[in-house]
Design a protein that fits this description.
By secondary structure, this protein is α+β, with helices and mostly antiparallel strands. Helices cover about 60% and strands about 20% of the residues. It contains three helices and three strands. Strands 1-3-2 form a three-stranded antiparallel sheet. The N and C termini lie far apart (about 45 Å).
């Protein structure tokens, strides 16, 4: 593997780890708070609301509901 390919592989692995860490933090935070606005999660993680929504797709234990047109995140019942 060339130096550029190795560097790209390392950067990709770092992004994957960062994404996984963010998702774990997101889950723990929602678990602790009970219900949180998507905008609050985005601000807390330093990413866009769209990124948070993509993360939520990967975390099926969390659900997005809308209350007064504001998206909220909470745990699914029974967990």
């Amino acid at each position: 593997m060339s130096g550029n390919a190795t560097g790209a592989a390392i950067a990709r692995a770092a992004r994957v780890q960062q994404r996984q860490d963010r998702r774990e933090d997101l889950f723990r935070y929602v678990e602790t708070c009970g219900r949180v606005r998507v905008s609050e999660l985005a601000s807390r993680a330093g990413v866009s609301e769209r990124t948070i929504r993509r993360d939520l797709v990967a975390l099926p234990a969390l659900v997005v509901t809308h209350r007064y047109r504001v998206p909220w995140v909470s745990l699914l019942s029974g967990l």
